[in-house]
Each structure stands twice: as structure tokens, then as C-alpha cells.
Design goal:
Blueprint lengths: L9 H39 L18 H4 L1 E6 L13 E6 L9 H7 L12 H7 L3 H14 L11
Antiparallel strand pairs: 1-2
Helix pairs in contact: 1-5
Length: 159
């Protein structure tokens, strides 16, 4: 039996640590970017798919005066937001807020229906989230895969 003993000197250990740190930061930056891109795609999908006027119960709402359209935005929540966010954790979220227009929580009332005015449901939030359920994961896997093979685009193995 042949035994091989390998040792790393200080320079090798330091180089390995630096490479590991760089890869970790690259992956964190990619995750932040993919989160933002996915949130922006969701907002774009919603704002480009309003129903024709008038909308029927169960359809996306129709665009009338633009309050709902203007109240859907992507916002960034800063680093260190919670114990599971990690050292560089940043998240992006979609805000459905029509309060600046004087309409209160109009975005949710349209989505869920309004008992006071007997307005029917015009669901657009949940159907959109279902449609985009795997987009974030797929984009992140693709981004990480491209990093590990040197940025060359190759077919993704199915399995």
C-alpha cells in the first residue's frame, strides 16, 4: 500500500480561504440580484396583464385610473434583517400599496373582493405567485452553474 501525505503551507491555506470567501460573496451577490430580477419580473407581469375593461369576477382586474398599477413596486430590505438572513442577507419584496392615492388598501380589496361594496374578487396576486413559483430557484441554479463552469453556457443536465 502506498501512502501519500500532502500538506498545505501558509500561502496555500490563505489562497484557499480567499477563494472560498470570493465564491461565497459572488453567490450572495447573485442571490440578491436574482431576487431583485424575479420581483421586477413579477411586477412587470402583473402590470402588463390587466384584463380588458370591464373585468369579470375571477379575472385580473381591469386598469381604470392607474392607482393599482402605480401602487405595485419592488423595494429592497437592507442587510442583517433577521437571524436567518446571514451576514450579507438582503431581500426584495413587492409592495402593494395604494394608500398615497387616498385609496387605502385598494390593492388587496380588488384582489380579495370587498364586502362593503359587494365588489367581486379579481385575483391577481396568488395566480401570479403560482406562475412564478419556480422562477427564482431556476435563475439561481443557472447563475451558480455558470460560475462553476467558468461562465460558459452549456446545456443543463436533466435529472
Amino acid at each position: 500500500m502506498i501512502k501519500i501525505k500532502a500538506t498545505l503551507n501558509y500561502e496555500h491555506k490563505k489562497a484557499f480561504e480567499n477563494t472560498t470567501i470570493k465564491l461565497e460573496r459572488m453567490m450572495e451577490n447573485d442571490a440578491i440580484q436574482v431576487t431583485r430580477e424575479t420581483a421586477e419580473e413579477i411586477v412587470k407581469y402583473i402590470t402588463e396583464n390587466w384584463s380588458p375593461r370591464p373585468s369579470r369576477e375571477g379575472q385580473f382586474p381591469a386598469k381604470r385610473d392607474g392607482y393599482l398599477n402605480d401602487g405595485i413596486t419592488v423595494e429592497k430590505q437592507g442587510r442583517n434583517r433577521g437571524r436567518f438572513a446571514g451576514k450579507y442577507g438582503t431581500s426584495h419584496f413587492i409592495r402593494f400599496d395604494t394608500s398615497d392615492s387616498g385609496r387605502g388598501q385598494y390593492a388587496l380589496a380588488v384582489n380579495d373582493g370587498n364586502r362593503i361594496t359587494n365588489a367581486a374578487e379579481r385575483p391577481y396576486i396568488e395566480p401570479t405567485m403560482k406562475k412564478f413559483a419556480s422562477v427564482y430557484e431556476d435563475k439561481l441554479i443557472e447563475r451558480i452553474r455558470l460560475q462553476t463552469i467558468g461562465g460558459k453556457k452549456v446545456p443543463r443536465p436533466r435529472g
